[in-house]
Each structure stands twice: as structure tokens, then as C-alpha cells.
Design goal:
With 440 residues, the chain is of the alpha+beta class. The protein has three domains: 146 residues, no CATH class; 85 residues, Helix Hairpins (Orthogonal Bundle); 146 residues, Heat Shock Protein 90 (2-Layer Sandwich), CATH 3.30.565.10. The chain is built from twelve helices and ten strands. The strands form three sheets. Strands 5-7-8-10-9 form a five-stranded mixed beta sheet. Strand 9 and strand 10 form a beta hairpin.
């Protein structure tokens, strides 16, 4: 970048520093001005109270009548007449019987208070004006990283590339090997910014490709098992199923189970694929989490008689703006997982509550097998299942779906898990600010 462009950027940044420093100085002057007025009023009030207190008249303070009077001139058209009018300002205190307790001219102490406050304000304002250079240095130190960023951004926006440098970029990109370690290196100081940006972009593309390849491999693996089972039983039916009813019944049952499992897996895959493509509609509305969790609790009691379900919530409704169907789906995933990994006759606790003044939570807690800390870090990854969880079946996609739903509602999870003690999972959401107002 040329020196003229560099100077232009520095001048703009310097102008910003000057405005910020001036604004801070003006703020301090305003603060000292109003504090001076407040101090003047306090001084006058203290003087008047002292005059009453020193008057040896046995009349309670509450039984006294107070007034401030001034005798105005016929017309006030000069400073001298204004001075004469204000000099008649009097503070009068009388008893209920009409006896005058205090009758004082308050012009002199008022002038003293105003003069003292004005002098103090003048000294403060002088100090504030002197602090301008200090404020500017302080702001310059704070904004130093932004100054450098502005210079670099200006340099990148005004960079002029010759035909040779364009040819160099094209040659390096064309010759780049498709390996994990391959990076672009132009060996040119003018192209350092472009080099860093393109290498960062390459890293993100590679990571995206790795995730996509892992997803396809995991999906293929999960689909291969039920297809192999169905194929095996279909072959067994072709050989012996016509004559052996036991083989026929066993094959039909296995094929139906594996078909249902494969259907569930495909539905989950389609949900995630639609979500990643932005084709899943989210329709936020006013939702009472207590009522929604009560429904899930009653469904769980009816569907799963092997576990003991308990539910707790506040007395008053807990409202959020959310897609009730999707949030309920996420909660059901958590409840199904708890039921899967918890022994029969053990408890599963559902609850709703307030996380803070602005957040609420939905909680599912079980007394199941729990998780290792290393498993908790990966529990939301697609198809991830710990070694202990593999024997319980499942697809490994449920928690990924739940996380996708919660992320789209700007919420987050809080997980506490201990092996052989159980797992507690919270879904934390933003509380509805004005539940009394119906959303449009």
C-alpha cells in the first residue's frame, strides 16, 4: 500500500480517537455540572435546617409551617433589578398559632453556595479539559489492534496484482495435490493475505468432506445390517419356509423388526438431511413448557410401564417461543434414551424450571448406566455410540437430531453424567419476555 493510502487510513482512525476522547471529556463535564447543582441545593437545605434547629422554640418540626417568599420588582429589565429582587428572598417558619419562629434572608448563603459550587465546577472543568490528551492516549492504546486491522484491511482492498501474480496463483492452485497436508505457498509478500485466506478455506473444505464421508460410511454401515438380516431370512424362507411353519414365523417376525428399524433409521437420516439443507420449517409459537412436559410424562406412563416416572414443575406456566412439535420431539428422544439405559423399576425424573431470570430449562434425569467423560464430549456426533451403549441397540442419531432442534431454537444442553449413577440432561431455552402478550 502506498504511503498516501496509509496516511489516509491513519487520519480516519485518528479522527475516531479524537471524537471518542472529546465525548468522554464532555461526559465528565456534564456529570460535574449536575453534581455542582446538586451540591448547591444540599448546601442551602442544610443551612436552612440548621437555622430551624438552632432556634430555641418548643415547637415540633412537624408542627411548623415553612415558606420561601420573594418581593418582585415591578419589572425586571436589568441585572441590578434582578439582584435587588433576589436579595429579598426570605425563608419563614411559623407555628400553627401564627408565631414566627425563623425569618431569615437566604440570599447571602445562597450566593455563597452557588459561588462555592461554581468555583469547584470551574476547577473540575479545567481538570477535565487538561485530561483530553490523557483520554486520547488511553483510547489510542485500546484501539491499537483495530488500527492495525484497518491498515491491513485497506492494504488488502487496494492490492494491485500484475498479470504475473495472477498467473502464479493459477499455477499454484492447478498444481495443488489433493492430500490432507497440501497447502498453497506463493512465496510472495504481496500475496500473503490471499495465501492465508485460501489455506483457511481449503482446511474448512477438507473438514466438511471428512464429515460427509464419515456420515456416508456410518449410514451405509447402519443400513447394511438390517438389509443383510432381511436378505438372510428371505433366503431361508425360499429354502424351508414353505414347509416349516416355525421357520416361516421366525422369518416374518425378523423381517418386520428389521424393516421397522431400517424405516426409523431412514426417517432420521432424512430429517437431518432436510435440516442441513434448510428445508425443515420451524414455526415458533407461545408454548407452555409445563403443559408440554405434562403431556410427555403422561405418554411415558402409558407407553412404558417398566420404569417409575416422576414429574415436577413450577405452579405458574413457563412460556417460551418455540416450535412445540420439534421441542417435544427432542424431549421424547431424551426420555427414550433414559428408558433404554435404565434398569426396570428404576426412576426417570422429568422437570421444568427457571435457570435464570432470562432462561428456563427442561430436564430429564435417569439412574441408568451413565457415561464416561470422554463419551459426553462426543455424544451429539452422528452415529456415535459408546462401547457400553452398543449392546442396547439404537441408531446413534437421536441425540444429533435433538441437538439440531435445540440449536435452531438458540438453546443449549447441560449434561451431568456419572458411570453407574445415571445421567441428567437439561435443555436450556430463552424465556418468553412478555408472556401476557399474544405473539402475532
Amino acid at each position: 500500500m502506498s504511503s498516501n493510502q496509509n496516511n489516509s487510513v491513519k487520519k480516519r482512525v485518528s479522527s475516531i480517537r479524537n471524537r471518542l476522547a472529546g465525548q468522554r471529556v464532555r461526559t465528565k463535564i456534564r456529570m460535574h455540572f449536575f453534581s455542582g447543582i446538586f451540591l448547591t441545593i444540599i448546601m442551602i437545605a442544610v443551612w436552612l435546617a440548621a437555622r430551624e434547629y438552632m432556634t430555641a422554640v418548643p415547637v415540633p418540626f412537624a408542627a411548623r409551617s415553612r415558606s420561601i417568599t420573594v418581593t418582585p420588582s415591578t419589572s425586571i429589565n436589568s441585572v441590578h433589578q434582578l439582584y435587588r429582587t433576589l436579595s429579598t428572598l426570605r425563608y419563614t417558619v411559623t407555628s400553627k398559632a401564627g408565631v414566627v419562629i425563623v425569618d431569615e434572608n437566604i440570599f447571602a448563603p445562597a450566593v455563597v453556595a452557588v459561588g462555592f459550587s461554581t468555583g469547584l465546577f470551574a476547577l473540575r472543568m479545567f481538570a477535565d479539559l487538561l485530561s483530553y490528551s490523557g483520554e486520547r492516549r488511553r483510547i489510542k492504546k485500546i484501539l491499537a489492534p483495530l488500527d492495525e486491522l484497518a491498515v491491513q484491511a485497506e492494504a488488502l482492498s487496494n492490492i494491485e496484482l500484475s498479470g504475473e501474480k495472477y498467473h502464479l496463483i493459477e499455477e499454484k492452485i492447478t498444481s495443488l495435490e489433493p492430500t490432507e497436508e497440501a497447502r498453497l505457498s506463493f512465496g510472495d509478500a504481496d500475496l500473503m493475505g490471499i495465501e492465508r485466506a485460501m489455506n483457511s478455506l481449503l482446511a474448512r473444505i477438507r473438514e466438511s468432506n471428512r464429515q460427509q464421508a464419515r456420515f456416508v460410511n456410518d449410514a451405509s454401515h447402519e443400513l447394511r445390517t438390517p438389509i443383510a438380516v432381511i436378505e438372510g431370512y428371505a433366503n431361508m424362507l425360499a429354502r424351508w419356509g414353505r414347509e416349516d411353519e416355525k421357520v416361516l414365523d421366525e422369518s416374518i417376525t425378523a423381517i418386520r423388526n428389521e424393516s421397522a428399524h431400517m424405516k426409523h433409521l431412514v426417517e432420521q437420516l432424512l430429517f437431518l438431511a432436510r435440516g442441513d439443507a434448510g428445508r425443515t420449517n420451524i414455526n415458533p409459537e407461545k408454548v407452555d413448557l409445563c403443559e408440554m412436559m405434562q403431556t410427555v410424562y403422561e405418554e411415558s406412563l402409558m407407553i412404558d410401564e417398566g420404569h417409575i416416572y416422576k414429574y415436577s414443575s413450577p405452579v405458574d406456566p413457563v412460556y417460551v417461543m418455540a416450535d412445540e412439535g420439534l421441542i417435544k420431539q427432542a424431549v421424547r428422544i431424551l426420555v427414550d434414551n433414559s428408558a433404554k439405559y435404565t434398569r426396570e423399576k428404576d426412576e426417570i425424573l422429568l422437570s421444568v424450571g427457571y435457570e435464570s431470570d432470562s432462561e428456563v430449562y427442561i430436564q430429564v434425569q435417569d439412574t441408568g448406566i451413565g457415561m464416561k467423560e470422554s463419551d459426553v464430549e462426543h455424544m451429539f456426533e452422528r452415529f456415535y455410540r459408546s462401547d457400553e451403549a452398543r449392546s442396547f441397540g439404537g441408531t446413534g442419531l437421536g441425540l444429533s437430531i435433538a441437538k439440531w432442534i435445540v440449536d435452531r431454537h438458540n438453546g443449549h444442553f447441560e449434561i451431568t453424567s456419572r458411570e453407574d449413577l445415571g445421567t441428567r440432561i437439561k435443555i436450556v431455552l430463552k424465556k418468553m419476555e412478555n408472556p401476557a402478550q399474544n405473539p402475532a
